[in-house]
Amino acid sequence: MKASAIKLASAVLGALCLSAPLQAQQNFSDDAGFYIGGGIFSAANSDCSECEYTGQALEIGYDFNDIVGVEVKYASGESDYDDELNIQYVGANIGHDFNTGWFRLYGKVGLGSIEETFTYQGGCYDYYYCVPTYTESYTSTGTTLGIGARFTLSGTASGLYLKAETMGVAYEDESVGVAFLLGTGYRF
C-alpha cells in the first residue's frame, strides 16, 4: 500500500513535469526549468542514539515559476554499525528567489518513505549459547517538511547550483527523523 502511494505520486509528478514546459513557456520562460543533482546527507532519529546515518542523495525536479516547483528525491546511506537507510521523497518546493534569479529560499512539503534495515551479528558465547545473524527492517511513510536554499553559480536561474536543506518526518511511533543535505546539480 505505501509503496504504491509512492509509485502513484511519482507517476503524477512525471506527468506534471512533462506537461509543465508547454504551460510555462509563455508566462514563465525565464523562471521555469528542470534540475537534476546529487549530494551527501546526514540523518538521525530522535528515538535512537545509535541511528545516525550518512550517505548520498539524488534528486530531479521542475520549477514551474519562481515560486512553485516539484521534486523527487532518493537517498541511501549507512550507520557506523552497517545498518542501512533508504529515503524516497516526492513533494512540492515552494519559495522565492527575491528577484535575484541566482538565490532561492524555499520550504518543502511532501510524502516521504523511510526504510531502516538493521543487521544483528550472531555469535557464540560461553560455548553453550549461540545467536544467529538476522536482519530486521522498519518502514514508515508520512508527511515530510523541510527548508532549504539554492545558489546558482551563473548569476541566473539556470546553471550549476549548490544547495543546503534540511528535512524532517514524524514516524508512526511519534519519534522524529531529521536529515541535512548538501548538494550540487544543474538547472536547465
UniProtKB/TrEMBL annotation:
One Pfam family of this chain: OMP_b-brl
Signal sequence interval, chain numbering: 1-24
The UniProt record lists the keyword Kinase: no
InterPro entries cross-referenced by the UniProt entry: Beta-barrel_OMP (IPR027385), Enterovir_OMP (IPR000758), OMP/PagP_B-barrel (IPR011250)
SUPFAM superfamilies for the chain: OMPA-like
Keywords, ordered alphabetically: Signal
Domain of life: Bacteria
Stretches assigned to the Outer membrane protein beta-barrel domain: 11-188
Protein name, entry field: Porin family protein
